[in-house]
Design brief:
It comes from Streptomyces citrinus. The chain is mainly beta. The chain has helices at residues 9-22, 37-47, 175-180, 360-367, 397-401; strands at residues 54-58, 63-66, 73-77, 80-88, 96-98, 104-107, 116-124, 130-139, 144-146, 148-151, 157-158, 164-168, 182-187, 193-197, 201-205, 215-221, 226-228, 231-233, 236-243, 247-252, 257-262, 265-271, 284-287, 290-298, 309-318, 325-329, 346-349, 373-377. The longest helix has 14 residues, at 9-22.
């Protein structure tokens, strides 16, 4: 005998059973799919599978001489766009909108010329996996450009009749694109619409005269706007101006009297002289567009030959581009309030040299500002043309918006 006790059959069977159980071949832990390590590998592979979504950006990466309108578009296939960022080198973002189906994004504004833009776009496939694309391109450098000269000036205070008027250095054949690039906002808020006079001027105004105290902000985003084929805007400006107190003066040609109203209350009645027969003053609503303490008035400049040439007209305020003024008159004798003797202007009693601040012309000049309204009624002439000065108030609101 070797001193070792024999292993019973029962103990041997128990040992084999234990080895089998510890080896894992007879079952799995809770949550196992029964596939063991191969199942886990399959799940990991599925999780790491690339997104099926494909993001496409036009124009292609690195493109030059890109059009400022119509060229930029971001699309997604086999997925939906979730994020699109477009900005220039200074970080200024381009606004845009992802379509409701998530398939595309387009900018809501034109792009600036001679500018490099970077695009970052992200899309998700149906399983939530993301795909991204980053590109850049540079817009064209135009050979021909235009700008807009405007009134009133930034920071100015004007009367209730003053529109915001822009005159362009080139005739515009794409007016909708140009008008879209000009935004006018007010505080308090009021609807403001633009109206084109010809192809080089657009004026903006509300339906009625501005309310006193209104703050107006205009943004001119013309850089990159194609105003006519091959001619692009190159101007970005923000202009702010304030509406002052309300002053509307009414000239009654028959009565030869002007009634001045300030904030709805009559503050003065002034005898005047207006256009004599054959030289009648325009009817209608006219806006003071220029103030001159003294100016020369020569009939030759307005088609009246050598009928007059007065080198020192005092207290003159322009009402039309064609030469209608409301001004001081020191040569009119007893015409004021009695008969009409002018060549179409509205005359108020004054003294030569304009030194007397108590005469009606000086008082009215000192009480007036650019943008105040002068209404002429009961004249034998027709109504002044809306584009003859800043006199669009003579158009109905319906015609203005056409």
């Amino acid at each position: 005998m070797n001193g070792r006790r024999p292993i019973s059959a029962a103990l041997l069977g128990a040992a084999l059973l234990l080895v089998t159980a510890c080896g894992g071949g007879g079952g799995s832990d809770a949550g196992d799919d029964g596939k063991g390590d191969s199942g886990k590998a399959s799940s990991a592979a599925e999780a790491n599978k690339p997104s099926a979504a494909v993001v496409t950006v036009a124009p292609k990466n690195g493109a030059d001489d890109v059009a400022t309108s119509g060229a930029l578009k971001v699309t997604a296939s086999k997925g939906k766009l979730t994020e699109v960022e477009v900005a220039d080198a200074k970080g200024r973002a381009v606004d845009g909108k992802i379509a409701g189906d998530g398939a595309s994004w387009t900018p809501s504004q034109h792009l600036a010329a001679s500018t490099t833009y970077k695009i970052h776009a992200v899309a998700k496939d149906k399983d939530g996996r993301e795909s991204a694309k980053d590109t850049s391109f540079t817009t064209l450098t135009p050979k021909n450009t235009f700008i807009g000269t405007f009134t009133p000036e930034d920071g100015s205070k004007v009367g209730v009749g003053m529109p915001f008027s822009v005159r362009f250095t080139r005739g515009i054949t794409h007016p909708d694109d140009v008008e879209k690039a000009i935004t006018v906002t007010t505080e308090p808020s009021v609807p403001v619409e633009g109206h084109w006079f010809g192809n080089d001027r657009i004026d903006f105004r509300p339906e009625e005269y501005w309310a006193a105290g209104t703050e107006v902000t205009v943004k001119l985003n013309l850089d990159g706007v194609e105003g006519r084929p091959g001619v692009y805007g190159k101007q970005v400006r923000t202009v702010k101006f304030t509406i002052g107190r309300s002053q509307v003066s009414t000239v009654d040609v028959k009565k030869k009297r002007m009634t001045v109203e300030r904030d709805g209350k009559v503050i003065k009645k002034i005898p005047v002289t207006t256009g004599k027969p054959g030289y009648d003053t325009w009817n209608g609503q006219m806006v003071i567009s220029e103030k001159l303490k003294v100016t020369r008035m020569n009939g030759e400049t307005v088609g009246y030959g050598g009928e007059y040439d007065i080198k020192d007209v005092p207290h003159a305020m322009r009402l039309t581009n064609s030469g209608t003024f409301i001004h001081g008159n020191y040569w009119g004798g007893d015409a004021f309030g009695n008969y009409n003797a002018s060549h179409g202007c509205v005359g108020l009693r004054d003294v030569r040299g304009g030194y007397d601040g108590q005469v009606p012309a000086a008082w009215f000049f000192n009480q007036s500002m650019i943008g105040d309204v002068v209404v002429v009624k009961n004249s034998h002439d027709k109504t002044v043309a809306p584009d003859n000065g800043f006199n669009g108030w003579n158009m109905s609101w319906a015609d203005w918006k056409k």
